[in-house]
Each structure stands twice: as structure tokens, then as C-alpha cells.
Amino acid sequence: MTFQSVLTQARSEHRTLLNEVEAKQVLGEAGVSVTVTTLATSADEAAKQAEAAGYPVVLKVVSPDIAHKSDAGGVKLNLNNTAEVKAAYAEIVASCTKAVPNANIVGVAVQHMAPQGTEVIIGMTTDAQFGPVMMFGLGGIMVEVLKDVSFRLVPLTDRDANQMINEIKGRPILDGVRGQPASDIAALKSTIVKVAKFVEDHPEVRELDLNPVFAYPDGAIAVDARIIVAEA
Ligand code: ADP
Ligand code: MG
Q1: For every one of its 232 residues, what pLDDT tens digit does the chain have, with 9 covering 90 and above?
Q2: What confidence score (pLDDT) does residue 144 get?
Q3: d(CA 153, ligand 2 centre) in Å
Q4: Which protein residues have a CB closer than 5 Å to ligand 2 (ion)?
Q5: Domains of the chain, CATH where assigned
Q6: Cα 211 to ligand 2 centre (Å)
Q7: What is the pLDDT of residues 90-113, one digit of tens each?
Q8: Nearest alpha carbon to residue 138 among 169, 113, 160
């Protein structure tokens, strides 16, 4: 599915939020490293897709009415067999229905569970005056509490991406501290550049969040993605 077909589908449903499956599909096509994610609309389908994804797997709610999936009980990690997958499917639907009573639950996203890495965030927002702006930061409390993030306007060069990574206060964490491994800076830089290029190529994109991206000593992969497009 190309960006155009995903956009057409979303607009036909009067949605501006591309779900995780759609967002990862279009970003994957743009060369961004993402966990391969499929949409299951039943527990049986989820179990089949889990085999294909390879255990352990992660299940997450797909709903245009639920932006923060964990908060609604919509994320189940580290599922190791068919029985666990089927139970998780039912639990996700039950807790999300309870958390957001009239939510339209389209199904559940199925993906392989990636090994833990250093969590970073790569995002984009549209500034009323300057247009698309890229954002980079370390995941978790570093962004939420300390607002330790850097920004650059799109279009963005390799050098800009490097500076974005180097100017955050938490930069030493990416070199590895307290026995934590170092992060692949070249892979992070390349991810920022590819996302910026994707944004440049698709002016309909208004907001984009890869939160988190797992950074490893060798490579980096986005395990969550969300895109907001402009209204038709
Ligand atoms: P949301 O941000 O909507 O609550 P996420 O998709 O970010 O949901 O999932 C919540 C957390 O679960 C992530 O921050 C990450 O730590 C973990 N997680 C999500 N997907 C994966 C995955 N494929 N592999 C490993 N961990 C994951
Ligand atoms: Mg997330």
C-alpha cells in the first residue's frame, strides 16, 4: 500500500489519524526501519499472524478513538504462544471498551517483540509559520519531564540531523552509561533524515511520531508510529 492509497482510505473514512499499521507501512516503504505490523480483526487471525511474525509478539489495539494505547490497556507485550495471543486479544478489546466506551475498535496490530534498546523519539510537528519541524529526544522521562529535545526545520541535511542528536543534554546516554550499550548514531541519523524526506515528499503529513525508536549498538527500529494528515 502506497502513501496515496492509505491517504485515500483514511479520507474516505473521514479520519486524519493513520493507525500504527498504516503509518508503519508507509514509513517502511520510505526506507525507515519499523517492526513489521499487521492488522488482525479476530483472535484466530491474530494467532495466525503471530506465527508469521515470530514469537515473542506484541498485540496493540487499533482504534481511531484511542491515541495512547497503553493508557487504555491496549498494549500486551511478550506473548509466547497461541493461547496467550488469543487471551490478549480478548483482554485488549475488553479493557479498551471499558476505558473508552464508544471506541470503534478496528482490530489489533500484531508484531514481533523487538529486544529492548535505548528508547529515543523522532517526531515532526507543523509550525503555523515555519511549516514542518523535526524533533529528536531520548524516550521516557527525558522527553516527558525534562523536555530534553532538539528541533530543525524541514528540509534537513545530514549535518542538521547530526546536530539534532548531538545537542540534547542527554547525549552521553547514547554513548552508553552504567553498563548500558552505546547506540548506533549513524542509524539514528539516517532515520531522522529518511523521516524528514518522507515529510518533505508528502505535504499532507501534519504530525508524525515514532515513539519509541529502539536504538541498538547496531541499528535502530521504530516499534510505535502514528501519523496525522491534513483534512481533505
Ligand atoms: P502507546 O505509545 O500508544 O501507549 P506503544 O506502541 O508505544 O503504545 O507501546 C508501549 C510500549 O510498549 C513502548 O513504549 C515500548 O516500550 C513497548 N513496545 C511496543 N511495541 C513493541 C515491540 N514491537 N517490541 C518491544 N517493545 C514494544
Ligand atoms: Mg508509543
Answers
A1: 799 999 999 999 999 999 999 999 999 999 999 999 999 999 999 999 999 999 999 999 999 999 999 999 999 999 999 999 999 999 999 999 999 999 999 999 999 999 999 999 999 999 999 999 999 999 877 777 778 999 999 999 999 999 999 999 999 999 998 888 999 999 999 999 999 999 999 999 999 999 999 999 999 999 999 999 999 8
A2: 74
A3: 23
A4: 211, 224
A5: 3-112 (3.30.1490.20), 118-229 (3.30.470.20)
A6: 4
A7: 999 999 999 999 999 999 999 999
A8: 169
Give the distance (Å) from ligand 1 centre to CA of residue 224: 6
**For the CA of 66, the nearest ligand:** 1
Cβ of 70 below 6 Å from ligand 1? yes
The answer to whether the CB of 63 is under 6 A from ligand 1 is no
Q: Is 76 in the pocket of ligand 1 (CB under 6 A)?
A: no
CB atoms within 10 A of CB 206: 16
Mind listing the pLDDT tens digit for each residue in 200-226? Answer: 999 999 999 999 999 999 999 999 999
Which whole-number Å values give the CA distances from 34 to 113, 155, 198, 215, in the listed order?
12, 22, 14, 12
- Ligand 2 midpoint to CA 134 (Å): 17
